[in-house]
Amino acid sequence: MSFWNGGFLNNELSKKTSIFGLRLWVVIGICVGAAIVLVLFLISLCLTSRRRSPSSSPRKKPQKSLKLHLQDSTPSVSTDIPEIHHHHHQTASAAAVAAPASVADVRIDVGKADHRVVLADHHHNSHPRPPAAPPSASTTGTASGETIGTPSSMGGGGGPPEVSHLGWGHWYTLRELEEATGGLAEENVIGEGGYGIVYRGVLADNTTVAVKNLLNNRGQAEKEFKVEVEVIGRVRHKNLVRLLGYCVEGEYRMLVYEYVDNGNLEQWLHGDVGEVSPLTWDIRMNIILGTAKGLAYLHEGLEPKVVHRDVKASNILLDHHWNSKVSDFGLAKLLCSERSYVTTRVMGTFGYVAPEYASTGMLNERSDIYSFGVLIMEIISGRAPVDYTRPPGEVNLVDWLKNMVGDRKSEQVVDPRIPEKPSPKALKRALLVALRCVDPDAHKRPKMGHVIHMLEMDDLLVRDERKLGRESSSAQSSERYHHREGGGLSKRGRVLKGSASSSTVPVHCCKSRWCCTMLKLQDLLNPPCRFSSTAAF
Ligand SMILES: Nc1ncnc2c1ncn2[C@@H]1O[C@H](COP(=O)(O)OP(=O)(O)OP(=O)(O)O)[C@@H](O)[C@H]1O
């Protein structure tokens, strides 16, 4: 034990070493000191490089921090619908992306009074960029598990456009969109919805776009952004407004759409367009048909299917040929084929929301079909779904229209501003489709595909009728449409697939006023037939 006593240790430590003749304790002291200094140096190096990383490596670090922030403050899209995570796990982080170093240079004011963006740094390179590459229709970017990265041009201004890592569309820089919209100038505002302000903009390649600047709140707007980017980015259809890309910079969330140049349907139906509406009956039917095709694609052409949740007149945009394009998918929900509904917070627009969805929160595509039925009624009548300026019995469009049809006053529901009244048959066909879409029993509502068949058949019947008018004096053709038992129209006894009457209200169901109305309508539509036609069906 004496080996370890103090005297021995002192002796050993006091011995001189070969290093400059320094004593052992001095050498040990120097070594320990150097080690401490080295450790401290390494720690400080580590901290410094972390602090620098947002500017030196903009693609990685801010992405992480913002992602955490967003997840903390915003319920994930997938809280309501697990399918989103299941199918688009990576894209769910679409909005959880990097805040570039340039964010510090941007003063943000997205209040309604002044929604201009002021860029503090005006020395950026603002060379026009080359035309944007067409977005890919593929969604492999998401499927392959790529997350969105910050484009290299971000914060630097100018530079070529970045193709989104989602596999479609572009990631626009704030500067690009600021330049396109004149700094989000008031005079470029084309509309304002619940979640943001929409601006007309012209990109450097001369493409006219609509830029929606989502309001700076962390709730529904953030959610809306994610949904649009994840869900609608993959959608391509001539009757759906195309999302071209998006911008995520700092607090900004912007969506960039194709520009639809003739306003929205609400403006044309309820705006100040004079005594005679430019929307003729045929134009209105074309708008209904186009809208039906867009919705049919969402419901029946995609997996998981998309429930729009906010079908209404202001979300139907029109081009100069009166083609309709459904817009505003911010409330959309995904629904896998194996699920018949999702339960979600009730959202939508008063007057258009299906009763069963309003009362239970259970959502599926049949809710859209109800809203679509209300929309048809609005288009036919020129009346808003709920209008408190009208007498009590006429405030609610659906109720009023049902009563009018039930009382055999169908002709009186037509918008008085339509220049040329529709034929009784065309009117009744449109009314039947509308009434079936708003059937209180959601299961009895037709699917959108069926609606299209009904409407297109209407189109043919109208043409047929006109032709008949022209040939009124000519002899009847040998081909006849027969009235079928059960209501179906047929030609040479063949059941016409998808005809309005191929799925009829059972004769003995007539317990309610509603059911009687439907039966009366079907009777009206299918009288013992006096039509003759040589037109191919
Ligand atoms: N791609 C577009 N092209 C042309 N105009 C558009 C486009 N997108 C939106 N708008 C215009 O901007 C308006 C506001 O659109 P937005 O989708 O924000 O709101 P909304 O549908 O009217 O209301 P909310 O979002 O509250 O339901 C639209 O009604 C339309 O007139």
TrEMBL record:
SMART domains: S_TKc
Enzyme kind, highest EC tier: transferase
Regions that span the bilayer: 20-47
Residue ranges of the region described as Disordered: 51-96, 122-162, 467-497
Basic residues bias spans: 51-67
Residues at which ATP binds: K212
Keywords, in A-Z order: ATP-binding, Kinase, Membrane, Nucleotide-binding, Phosphoprotein, Serine/threonine-protein kinase, Transferase, Transmembrane, Transmembrane helix
GO CC terms: membrane
Record's subcellular location: Membrane
GO molecular function: ATP binding; protein serine/threonine kinase activity
Pfam families noted in UniProt: PK_Tyr_Ser-Thr
First-listed, main subcellular location of the protein, grouped into a coarse class: membrane
Catalysis performed (reactions): L-seryl-[protein] + ATP = O-phospho-L-seryl-[protein] + ADP + H(+); L-threonyl-[protein] + ATP = O-phospho-L-threonyl-[protein] + ADP + H(+)
Ranges where the Protein kinase domain occurs: 184-461
Compositionally biased spans, kind Low complexity: 135-153
Topology of the protein relative to the lipid bilayer: Single-pass membrane protein
PANTHER family recorded: OS01G0323000 PROTEIN, OS03G0125600 PROTEIN
Protein name, per record: non-specific serine/threonine protein kinase
Origin organism lineage: Eukaryota, Viridiplantae, Streptophyta, Embryophyta, Tracheophyta
